[in-house]
Automatic annotation (TrEMBL):
Superkingdom of origin: Bacteria
Protein family: Belongs to the Rv1128c/1148c/1588c/1702c/1945/3466 family.
Chain intervals with Low complexity compositional bias: 231-253
Pfam short name (any one): DUF222
Source organism of the structure: Nesterenkonia lacusekhoensis
Region (Disordered): 216-265, 356-386
Segments forming domain HNH nuclease: 399-452
Name by which UniProt lists this protein: HNH nuclease domain-containing protein
Length: 469
């Protein structure tokens, strides 16, 4: 059963759909004109270069290669015409050339307005990462079909899964090379703020994100204020005297006296608390006094990967990233890693690769029977058939919540990519209605926004459920 919603059709949106298709076709025509222009430019200058060689000496050593310089010049002129950056035009040209020459299904869908420019570019980029020509053919066929029914963000996650599943060894090598580029950088932007960027291994970054979020969300957790932030002045009960200058407190004096926990009246947003917590950790060299928080990272892992018999990558619980097999095995043998195992089904261990070839399969399906949490929990008892158990009462037991989150990955509303771990576990049929059981077949992950829309009647449950007994 598809636990997502395939389409939300409102007749009033027909004109929007038609206009979007027209816009995409116009953009495809513009891209075709770009390819034709650059081709003519290169041909013309290649002819000029050939004529020049008849009357001049050979190009001196170290001089720029003529064809490459002609292409760069064409990109420059095209960028001026499109009022875009040379980098953007160059990347668009590379992707369009790849699609036109090697991805016939993708190129046809693009020209027909079925898929957008970003979707075409993402498919083309992914195809360039593949070694096998057969895999390129499969990506073209299935990727274009998937793109026609999903958002660019969903397509990006699907492409990552496809490439990693079809060529796991090559994907692991690229991952290892990318990890070698890890770094921290600071970019100063306007209005007195800067962007601190850290390029880290994915699992490490995910653990940091989850730890920051879990601690910052706690109502009891005390998080110091950033001393560089001057709080908004309180609204005075009496109008201020215009002749008196405003008093701006020193940054070092802003932290004392301000509430540091939600319970104490802290009014900072979650993002602000997270940023201040991050700064406190880095500046002091030690963590604040933290309360217990769940900071586990959920992965779906093929059994053959664990045994070393295959190199299929693990997949994150929300399907947003892959973890190479060598990294998974290294994490599992590290003394600081604690795992909790769940068995979510009895699918073949080849499901990870086969699901990547099936754009029609719901993203919510578990890609492999073995799921684990990497985190501070101690291993607990396992239920090998947790998704088939019916529970009494309305509230969903913890082990079933975890199973639903692994199964669904993200919010099941169309196009929504809020991780299931941040979603409500909702009864599709209300608990008090006939058939509204607390069991996996009647539960799905919905973010709070879409949960409210479903409760208000604007988000219907899947047809398969409505027609069930």
């Amino acid at each position: 059963m598809d636990r997502g919603i395939a389409h939300l059709m409102d007749p009033e949106t027909a004109s929007l759909r038609s206009t979007e298709r027209d816009i995409r076709r116009a953009q495809a025509e513009q891209v075709r004109q770009l390819l034709a222009y650059v081709g003519r430019f290169e041909d013309r200058h290649a002819a000029d270069e050939g004529s020049a060689h008849l009357t001049t000496n050979l190009r001196p050593p170290g001089a720029p290669e003529a064809a490459a310089e002609a292409r760069r010049a064409a990109v420059l002129y095209a960028a001026q015409a499109l009022q875009a950056s040379e980098r953007y035009v160059g990347e668009l040209l590379t992707a369009a050339s790849q699609a036109q020459q090697h991805l016939p299904h993708t190129w046809d869908s693009f020209c027909q307005g079925t898929i957008s420019v970003p979707q075409m570019v993402r498919i083309a980029r992914s195809s360039l990462a593949l070694i096998s020509s057969q895999n390129v053919i499969l990506l073209d066929q299935h990727g274009s079909a998937y793109a026609a029914e999903h958002t660019p963000g969903q397509l990006t996650a699907w492409l990552r899964r496809f490439v990693a599943a079809r060529e796991p060894e090559a994907s692991a090598r690229r991952s290892q090379a990318a990890v070698g580029e890890r770094r921290v950088s600071v970019t100063h932007v306007e209005d007195g703020v800067s962007l601190l960027t850290a390029l880290l291994p994915t699992v490490t970054a995910e653990q940091i994100r989850r730890r920051l979020s879990a601690v910052a969300r706690s109502p009891q957790q005390e998080i110091p204020h950033d001393p560089s932030v001057i709080p908004e002045p309180a609204v005075a009960s009496e109008p201020a005297v215009a002749s008196e200058p405003a008093v701006v407190p020193e940054p070092s004096a802003t932290a004392p006296g301000l509430p540091t926990s939600r319970e104490a009246g802290d009014t900072r947003t979650l993002d602000q608390r997270t940023a201040d917590l991050f700064s406190a950790w880095l500046l002091t060299g030690r963590g604040v006094q933290e309360r217990a928080a769940d900071v586990s990272v959920g992965l779906l892992v093929p059994l053959e990967t664990l045994s070393g018999d295959a190199e299929s990558p693990a997949l994150s619980r929300d399907r947003s990233f892959n973890v190479p097999a060598p990294v998974v095995r290294a994490l599992l043998t590290h003394p600081s890693t604690h795992t909790t195992w769940y068995e979510l089904g009895v699918q073949s261990t080849q499901a990870l690769a086969s699901r990547a070839l099936d754009p029609g399969a719901p993203d919510s399906d578990a890609l492999d029977p073995h799921a684990l949490n990497l985190g501070p929990q101690a291993p607990g008892p396992q239920d090998p058939d947790v998704l088939s158990v019916r529970h009494r009462g309305r509230f969903v037991p913890k082990i079933l919540r975890e199973a639903i989150r692994f199964r669904d990955g993200t919010c099941r509303a169309p196009g929504c990519q809020v991780p299931a771990e941040n979603c409500d576990i909702d009864h599709q049929r209300p608990w008090r209605d006939p058939g509204g059981h607390t069991e996996a077949s009647n539960l799905w992950a919905l973010c709070r926004r879409h949960h409210r829309l479903k409760t208000a009647g604007y988000l219907p449950v899947p047809t398969a459920l409505r027609t069930a007994a």
